[in-house]
Amino acid sequence: MKILCDRQQLQEAFSVVSGIAPLKTPKPIIQNVLLKAEGDSLSFFATDMEMSAKVTIDSVKVSKPGMALLPARETNALLRELSDPTLSIETKEFRSTLESGGGSFVLVGDDPDLFPKESSLKKGQTICIEAGRFIDMVSKTSFSAAREETRYAINGLLLDSAGGCLRLVATDGRRLALRYENLDGEVPELRVVVPNRAFQALGRIVTDDDTDELEILASENQIAFKIGQRTLISQLLENRFPDYEQVIPKAADSTIEINKAILEKNLRRVAVLSSGDVRMVRFNFTESSLELSAESAGVGRADLNMEVETKGAGGAISFNPDYLLDALKVAEHEVVRVDMSDEATPAKFTLGEAYTYVLMPISGS
C-alpha cells in the first residue's frame, strides 16, 4: 500500500476509530487499526470484538492499493504531533513508513489478512433522526446509567420507539433520566438496550451541532449507527431493562418551581459540607422558600435559604447533591419543576419540555 493524503483529515478519521481498539486484550492483533486503500479513498476500521467503527475519507492519492495494520495508540499519538499538511504512508511486509515534514516514522503492524472481518447489518428496524438531536438526547441521559459491572442489566441505555416517539432512558437504580423526541414519518416499534460505551464512542463520531441524518439500524442482537461515511456497530445487551414507566411518579402532593441557575449555585455551596460516607443535602420546602442544609460531623454545617414557588403542602426530603447537580448541568429550562410527595417517595424533576429526571431520596435522614 502506498498513499498520499491530507494529514488533518487522516488524523481525525484515525482518532475516531482508534478509540475502539482495546488497550489490553488476549488478542493483540485487535490493538491495531486496519487501513484499506482503493480507488481514491482510504478506510479505517477497528474492533474490540463487541463493537466496531469504520470511517472512510476521499480525495486520497492511492499510488498502490492495499491494506495495512497500524498500532492504534502509537499511531494516534504520532499523528497528533505531526503538523505538515500532507502525509505519505507506504507499507512493505507489515512495516508502514509515515513521512511528513522531513521526518520518517516506521510503525510495525501485523498481517491484515488475520484481522477480524467487518460485520454489517442488512436487516432490522431503521430510525432516522438528525445526528445532533440524538447526541443531545444521549448527553441528557447517559450519566444516569450504572457504572458498576455488577449492575450489568442497566449498564446501558434503553432505546425505545413507538407511536412516532423515540425515547432514551438510563437508570442506575437510584436515579432515572428520560429524554424523548417526536419524529416525523413512520417510526418502527423498537425496544433495545445499548451499552453506554457504544454511546461514548458515538460521541467521537457525531457532534452535537451535526445536522446530518443519523441512521439507526437495530437487529436482534446488534445495533448500527451510520452518518455519511462513518459507521459504528455494537452488540446489544441481552438483559431486561426495568419498567421505567412504573418508576416515574404519576401524581404528587406538592409542585415547586425553582430557578435553575440559583439552585445549582446554592446546592454547590451547601454540598461542600455534605461529606462523609453518605453525601446528603436536606431540602425543606415551604410556601415561598427552600431551605438547603447539610452537615458533616467534626467539620461544620451549612444552611441556606432561597425563594421558590410552592403549590401544595411542601415538606422535607433529602438527596445526594451530586446526582441532582449532574442533571442541573444539562437542564434545558431556566425554571426547574419539582413534583414530590414525601421523603420516602421518588421526586420528579422536569428539566425540559421532553426531559424528565427521577431521583430517589435518601431515607432515614
Explain the overall architecture.
With 365 residues, the chain is of the alpha+beta class. It has 3 domains: 2-114, DNA Polymerase III, Chain A, domain 2 (Roll), CATH 3.10.150; 125-246, DNA Polymerase III, Chain A, domain 2 (Roll); 248-359, DNA Polymerase III, Chain A, domain 2, CATH 3.10.150. The chain is built from 7 helices and 26 strands. Helix 1 (7-18) runs antiparallel to helix 2 (72-81) and helix 6 runs antiparallel to helix 7 (321-328). It is elongated and about 75 Å long. The model has no long low-confidence stretch (mean pLDDT 94).
Which ranges are low-confidence, i.e. pLDDT below 50, for 5 or more consecutive residues?
Answer: none
Principal-axes geometry comes out as elongated
Q: Would you tell me which CATH topology of the largest domain applies? A: DNA Polymerase III, Chain A, domain 2
Radius of gyration: 25 Å
The overall average pLDDT, rounded, is 94
User: What is the level 1 CATH name of the largest domain?
Assistant: Alpha Beta
Strand content: 35-45%
- The CATH architecture category of the largest domain equals Roll
Count up the domains: 3
Main sheet attributes: strand count, strand direction, barrel closure: 9 strands, antiparallel
| First-to-last CA distance | 67 Å
The CATH superfamily of the largest domain is DNA Polymerase III, subunit A, domain 2
Helix content: 10-25%
Strand order of the largest sheet: 14-11-12-13-26-25-24-18-22
- Structural class determined from secondary elements: alpha+beta
Count of helix runs? 7
